[in-house]
Structure formats: structure tokens, C-alpha cells
């Protein structure tokens, strides 16, 4: 960077997931490719992206002050871009800056590296980045340019919200898919992604001769249509051990994907000489292992480390068994590709006060077809069925606070237990002798203050020493 460049302009190495862009109003055809696209990625943060052709070499610079010859900052110097590549960098401007100048030069690749002609063209840009009628975070001018409705919150451009691997992630296995997540489902009319959006950077020839090339493989629009996967074939190449560089790039743009109204997205990651020997694994289950007092209508959920191949998301790969009888439970298996969460819904409720065992078989596969390494098994127990009170046969408890079977109650905020009765009670019968509050498994009740409110038919029990965190408490009344 030029030593005279104002400190207000800084280059960022990472890439923000949410970007907004507006095509430049200048002529689209310029020597060696298309005019650069200006991107607004955050307040005072801009991104320049320029589509290239393979036979040319490029340099791209940016400035806040056209009158200052020392204010230019070199953003990109790529002597050997591939056909259709995107030269892209991000800059932060002075607070309140609304105008950005940029220039580029281009020459045939056969020219001697580093010997560029004079600048071919100048471009300047200024846009209204404050008006956002529908408050969706996308300025009206940008929405209009992309064909979405600036007056409707539900009409937004397509944009990338996350990727796996994330930007600048190191150590991606050579045989694992690349996944791009979007803010909204792709249109049903889009049946396939146009071409590979992952490219390989070969650093073996030295910085001046880096080669960017498309990666072989296939693309897959995942169920729900809010995620797109790239499956490499053959496997990715391991990154160079001697130079820790990001040897793969993601170019999720309209040109690469065929998705119209898409905010252009680029990121990069590196691979290592390592293969995915595990596949997708279970990261969390609900209810948890050996959980008790589970609601009889609760549908177990399983969080996975990676998306699953849709053809393997089947009830054939799951068994839910009632432990006492050995009877299987019929379940329906669903998978959310936004969260990698599986849900086991069951048409009939679980039996109360009953233990169940769930087994996830090795038939589950990740997107590359690698199966679950070992079957995953866990158990839980449902809550008992409370007696149903009958009106006219004496008073009964209508409500408790905290509610019955409450979990994860905050021990610091819960200082008492309150019971509400169906009718007025004799306060003299609601004492330590008839009302029992104790920790699960304890042999004695908690000492505390008993206070009956006749106006609300409520009894409040405040333990003298409070409640301990991570402890199950039980309350019972003598008849």
C-alpha cells in the first residue's frame, strides 16, 4: 500500500456474509471484461467486484479523493485470472463518505508481467444509501436495481447468509461437500445451478503465475431450497504444506449459478491432506440421554454436524422401542437443511411413565454418501400421568408457579413456589406437616416460610436457604 494513503482506507481480509450491491451505471463493455460492480456491505464499507476474461491481466485501485494522486490504494493485482473470475476486495471509507472512485488497467496476458499501460478508463460512483422504505436493511436504490420491491419487506434480493466451510476456514477435508446457505428459498423454476461455483487456486508455480481453475463435481439444491451444495469429483486437492494459503474459492454469483437477483458473494478456504473418515455425526439430542419426565407428546430432535443425503432420511434408519414391552413406535422422520436438525414425530403419544430407546442406524449418509460411522443409541423416560381432579369432590390444585415439570428454571430468580387452589382453604391445614417440598431423593423437607392468601386461594412456600441450581425439586400435599 502506498505510504501516503490516508489511514481511513483499510483493506479487510475477511468477508461479511450479508452484502448489498448496485451495478455501475457506466458502460458495461470495457477492455478485457465488464465494468466493476460496487458493493455496499456495511455502513461506510464497500466492495468492488470485477468480472474478467481469461486472456487478460488486471490491476484494480480505489480512492476517496480523486484530486489526491497519492490516495490510490491497490486492491487487486492478478496477472492470470481465469475466464469469468471475479476480482474482489473490500474497503472501509471515512465516516459519512458516499462517493468512491476506482480505476483499473488491463492488458493481454502475453505482455510482460508488471508492465501495464496507462489507465484505460475512470469510473466514479455515488448512491443514496440511507433510504430504506421497508426497513429490510437493503437500501431502496439497491433493491430497485436488483428487481425487488423497495416498499415490501418480503421482497428482498437473494444473499448468502453462511457457508460451510466458512470464509478463510483452514483444514477442510478433501472429500467433504461445500455448502452455501441463502436468506430465502430459490424459485421453483430454477431446477439446477448452472455450473461449479468452487474454483481451485494452484500456488505451485509461484505468486506471479497462480492459476485459478474450475473444480470438477456436481451441484445440488438441497430440500427446502435455501441451501446449495457442491460435491467435488474427484476429491479436492490438498493445500501446500509449505505455504498456508487458501487454495479454494467460492464464487456464488449470478454468472456462476444462474440465480437472478443475487448479491454476489465470494469467500475462500483451504484444504489439508485429510479425508472425512467419520461422515456426519450426532452433535446433540433432545430429550437428552437418560432424560426423565419427558412430555408424552414431545417429538425427539437430533442435531447433526453435516447435512444428510435426502434419500437416507428415512424411518427405515430409525428405531424407537418401548423398553418394557419391546414394542416399536411408529415415527416420521423430517430433516431441516437450514439447521441440520432431524425431527422424529410420532402419530400416537408416548405412554406416560415409560422408558424408550432410540437407535439411529448407519444408513444415514452425508451428502458425499459417507455413512454414520456407528449407530447412535440413547434413552429417555416420560413423565407420569397426573390424577385428573373432579369438580365437587373436594378442593384441588389448579396451578403451580413454577409450572409442573418445568425444566431449566433459574435458581437465582425462583425464590418461592406458589400453589393455587380451586376453592378457599383452611390456612391451618397448610403447614410443614401436610405440605412437603424437598429435593429429589432427599429424606427431609426444605425449611421455609408458609403464607396463605385467602383473596387468591394461593399458598406460597419460600425456602429459607433458597433453591440450588441443577437440582430437581418435588412438591406433594397430604390428603
Task: Give the topology, please.
Blueprint: E1 10-11, E2 20-22, E3 29-30, E4 33-34, E5 37-42, E6 45-51, E7 56-63, E8 73-78, E9 86-92, E10 99-108, E11 121-126, H1 140-146, E12 160-164, E13 169-172, E14 178-182, E15 198-202, E16 211-214, E17 217-221, E18 227-232, E19 248-252, H2 254-257, E20 265-271, E21 282-286, E22 291-294, E23 301-304, E24 318-322, E25 332-336, E26 341-345, E27 355-360, E28 376-382, E29 397-401, E30 417-421, E31 435-439, E32 448-453, E33 458-463, E34 473-477
Parallel strand pairs: 13-20, 22-28
Antiparallel strand pairs: 1-9, 2-5, 3-4, 5-6, 6-9, 7-8, 7-10, 10-11, 12-14, 14-18, 15-16, 15-19, 17-18, 19-20, 21-23, 23-26, 24-27, 25-26, 27-28, 29-30, 30-33, 31-34, 32-33
Task: Tell me what the structure shows.
- This protein has helices at 140-146, 254-257; strands spanning 10-11, 20-22, 29-30, 33-34, 37-42, 45-51, 56-63, 73-78, 86-92, 99-108, 121-126, 160-164, 169-172, 178-182, 198-202, 211-214, 217-221, 227-232, 248-252, 265-271, 282-286, 291-294, 301-304, 318-322, 332-336, 341-345, 355-360, 376-382, 397-401, 417-421, 435-439, 448-453, 458-463, 473-477.
- The protein has 479 residues and is mostly beta strands.
- Strands 1-9-6-5-2 form a five-stranded antiparallel beta sheet.
- The chain is elongated.
